[in-house]
Amino acid sequence: MLLVAGMLRYGRSLCSLGAGAALRRPAGRGGLRSGGHARGVSTSWSPVGAAFNVKPQGRLWHLLEERRGLFGVPELSTPEGFHVAQKEALRKTEWLVERACSMPPGPQTVTIFDELSDCLCRVADLADFVKIGHPEPAFREAAEEACRSIGTMVEKLNTNVELYQSLQKLLDDKKLMDSLDAETRRVAELFMFDFEISGIHLDEEERKRAVDLNVKILDLSSAFLMGTNFPNKIQKHLLPEHIRHHFARDGSYAVVDGLHAEASDDLVREAAYKIFLYPNAGQLKCLEELLSSRDLLANLVGYSTFSHRALQGTIAQTPETVMQFLEKLSDKLSERTAKDFEMMRGMKMKLNPQNSELMPWDPPYYSGVIRAERYNIEPSLYCPFFSLGACMEGLNILFNKLLGITLYAEQPAKGEVWCEDVRKLAVVHESEGLLGYIYCDFFQRANKPHQDCHFTIRGGRLKEDGSYQLPVVVLMLNLPYSSKDSPTLLTPGMMENLFHEMGHAMHSMLGRTRYQHVTGTRCPTDFAEVPSILMEYFSNDYRVVSQFAKHYQTGQPLPKAMVSRLCESKKVCAAAEMQLQVFYAALDQIYHGQHPLRKSTTDILMETQEQFYGLPYVPDTAWQLRFSHLVGYGAKYYSYLMSRAVASMVWKECFLQDPFNRAAGERYRREMLAHGGGKEPMLMVQGMLQKCPSIDDFVDALVSDLNLDFETFFMDSK
To answer: How does it assemble (predicted)?
Structure first.
């Protein structure tokens, strides 16, 4: 599925690593109707803070109102509507393919390809969300079927030689290509890249092999992903009696479904680690076949490794650059990491003198103990200051000061949302009017995925009539409900995750690309996380936090010393945590490097862990079989670190002095957010920083973030 807005290049949804890896026109109350120009005000809009601190109220006239359909799409008032929507998309697709193949090459070729992509994405992206986010099985099943149907069409298009040749004619005409604007040229090249990694430029036999490999990779990816979460079982009597109650039971078996990393009992963590990570032969074979198939496909379409193919068009560009970045970062971290491990070892000795060797199951727990002891950051002390409504108002204030944007709560129409607690936000610019919609699916419910995600439902693009198709996104979180005594209260980690995901949403809202193929977050992975991580810096700055963090009962502001302690606590053992991320990223690169692999994936894990982490490998474990990011972030796991480095540099250069600097905010929009994936990522970074950063600059930015702020100690000592 390569033609559909680069869905396999960049992914449809962006997950916050968050504290770990995803994603228009004015139309009254409706979500997705087209036409019109930006409006300035609507009587249905209300202040955002209040909307999130009260339970949604049903409207009496809902009983008489016509049911609109999910996201305002009329067909989707029932699950059967997906069949109607996909049928219409497939009909329009065939007509657009005919146009593309019969038209002489020119800028209109790219426009038609993008319209083709948009036509399929408008069903596929929406269905991609509904199949996991809708509470009703009938809607989920219908959406799943729509995804399969659109996927089949995309595979057909990716092997349509006539369609490929219509684009090839444009790219082969140098004079014509030189006459195109930079964004149109780049989008044409991206469409061609998507075609060629599906092997369409090969002879018939090799093309069939490429198609077969693509199908095999999709199947293996799905199977591996499922296996990463599958629990392991052990006979109960093999566990010490005093820890058995920590694990679920299945008859005579104890079921271990995770690492229990926060458990205070060392033996519980050790047992969970050894049992959950015990190698499964089927999962091991699945991983080996996945890595081998990716390598075969990359070789077939002209790349020496899968990593070389995956990194084309990114900030890093090549696997050699990624490994240089990781090795330099590891060298700079080594001394700090050793000190962190020594500190954790000391705490373990203090709490458990009989067994003080630091093991891989220890860092999350002991770093948390040290943090709590040193800084007194019990989350319950902070929650009363972080009501959801206050946090949303804080985002509103920040966006207003930085970008001239206001978030308004808008009452959705009947049937427009999939759960009554979903809030709809209109994103409105002070002079440009309505920019797009954000649907906020923030609260816990049964069968809802437990990760925080951004989904693109519809990408922005310039339409033929000159109007702009406004972007629509969903933000999915898992927050607790309000109670009768208090609104929804967020922990500091939840608040930071909210800011992170809203960074993705603003990237989608403020992208003003001509083509939806490169709208908003549809950009290289190592750039896509920059806006979201940058928002974390804002969420940790007292000048920003003081604008909204007030006790929900008394109105008392959150004391500055508490914010400072919270920020400094995050630096406790942070070098060791960053070192762990370097290890994961290096492992990912080696797995997707030269094949056949020199050794088994487990032997490579053991070697890489020794070189890039430092804590000993535990025999008879295979952590790589739980490394779910190998599917969505294959050869690109380093992106989290590189994006953080870029975000750190942007923060220090442009916002550290004044987080509300409007000129810096406008530059950020102009240089980084507006282009989506329509411009080379390094050019966007250069435009923002006014220089071309080196690998050493990236490394220094990450390491400098670990330095303690001595003002905090001074404040706390007063």
So the answer is: Monomer.
